[in-house]
Amino acid sequence: MSATTQRLPLGLLALAIGGFGIGLTEFVIMGLLPEVATDFGVTESAAGWLISGYALAVSAGAIGLTAAVTRFNRKHVLTGLMVLFIAGNLTSALAGTYSVMLAGRVVAALSHGAFFGIGAVVAASLVAPARRAAAIAMMFTGLTAANVLGVPFGTFLGQQLGWRSTFWAITGIGVLALIGMATLVPASTSTATAPVSLRHEIQAFAHPQVWFSLLITILGFGGMFGAFTYIAYTLTKVSGFAAGTVPWLLVLFGAGLFIGNSLGGKAADRSVTKTLMVVLAALTAVLVLFALTAPNQVLTIVSLALMGAFGFATVPGLQMRIMQYAGQAPTLASGANIAAFNVGNALGAWVGGVTIAAGLGYTSTLWAGAALSFLGLLVLLAATGHATRRRSPEQTQPAAAAVHAGTAA
C-alpha cells in the first residue's frame, strides 16, 4: 500500500473529528438548556434562540460564507472554518451574559454549513471515484457519533461540572480537529490550478437537477426531522415510556443514524438514484408503521431505530446527487445542500407543530413526516424522469466531472 493510499483515510478521520465537534455543538445545547437559562436568568423561550439562532446561522453560513471563499484553497478554508468554530465555542464557554452566549453560538454556526459543504467536496477528492459516497459518509460519521456518544456524555459533563465545561470540551475537540486537518488533509487535493470564481460556482444552479436535488433534500430529510423534533412527546405520551428512559431511547435512535449513514454511503457508491428511491420509500413506510404502532413499546423501539437508520441513509446520497449534477462547480452547490438540510429541519418541525396545534395528537407528527418523505420520493421520481429525457454526456458521467472538480479546485 502506497503512502498516499495510507494517508487518505487519515484525512477523512480529521474531517470526521471536525464533524463530531460541530454535531456536538449543535445538539448538546438541547440537554443543557435549563441550566443555561437559569444561569443567565432568561426564560425558556429566550434560551430557545440558542437553538433556533444557531440553525438560522448554519443556513446563512452554508451559502454566504461558502460563496465568499470559493476562490481559496479548500484545505486552508477548512482550517480557517475550524478556527472560527473554536472561537465561537470559546466565546460560549467564557460568556458572561446571554447576548455574548448567543453571539458565540452564531459564530460557531457560521462554520457549520460551510464546513460540511466544502468538506464533502474535499472528502470525495481524497478517494477513488467508486468510493466517493462512502468518503462523504465517513465525514458525516462524526455527526452521527455526536448523537450516539457525544450528546449523552456532553450533557452528563455539563450537569456534573457546569454547562461551561461542555463548551470547554468542545473547544478542545475543535483544536484536535484543526491540528488533524492542518497535518493530515493533503494540500494537493484542494489546491486550485486556477482560481475558482464565484461566477463559475453559480453556474451550477443553471442545471435544473441541482434545484431538484435541493427540493428532494428539503422534503426527504425534513420528513425524518419533523417526526424527530417531537419524538419525546410521542415516546412518553403515546408509547408510555417514562421520561427517564427517553435519553437511552435516543441513543438507540443515534445508533440507527450511525448504521444508516454508513450503509447509505456504500449503497450510494453503487447507485445514487436507486439508493435514494429505496431509502425514501422505506423511510415513508417506517414512519407510517411507527404512527400505527406507537402505543406498542416493542414496535416503537424497532421503529425508532429504523427511522434513524433510513433517515440518515439519505444523507450521503443526497449530498452526492447535487455534487454530481453541479459538475465542475460543486462547492457552492454542496454548501447550498447543507442549507437545504436545515431548511428541511425547520419545515418538518413547523409542519409537525401545526398538526399538534390542530389537535391531531402526537402521532400526527409521524404522519406529517411520512407525507413529506413521500413528497421527496415523488420529486426524485420526477427529477429522474426529467434527467432521462434530457440526458447528455455530462449527465451520464456526473461523478467523473465532480471528481475532477474536487481534485482540481
TrEMBL record:
Major subcellular location class: membrane
UniProt keyword annotations, A-Z: Cell membrane, Membrane, Transmembrane, Transmembrane helix
PROSITE patterns: MFS
Domain Major facilitator superfamily (MFS) profile, first and last residues per copy: 11-388
Cellular localisation: Cell membrane
Region entry Disordered, spans: 390-409
Alphabetical list of InterPro entries matching this protein: MFS, MFS_dom, MFS_Efflux_Transporters, MFS_trans_sf
Membrane-protein topology: Multi-pass membrane protein
Transmembrane segments: 12-34, 46-69, 81-101, 107-128, 135-155, 167-189, 210-233, 245-263, 275-292, 298-318, 339-360, 366-383
Compositional bias (Low complexity): 399-409
PANTHER family: CHLORAMPHENICOL EFFLUX PUMP RV0191, PURINE EFFLUX PUMP PBUE
Name the record gives this protein: MFS transporter
Organism lineage string: Bacteria, Bacillati, Actinomycetota, Actinomycetes, Micromonosporales
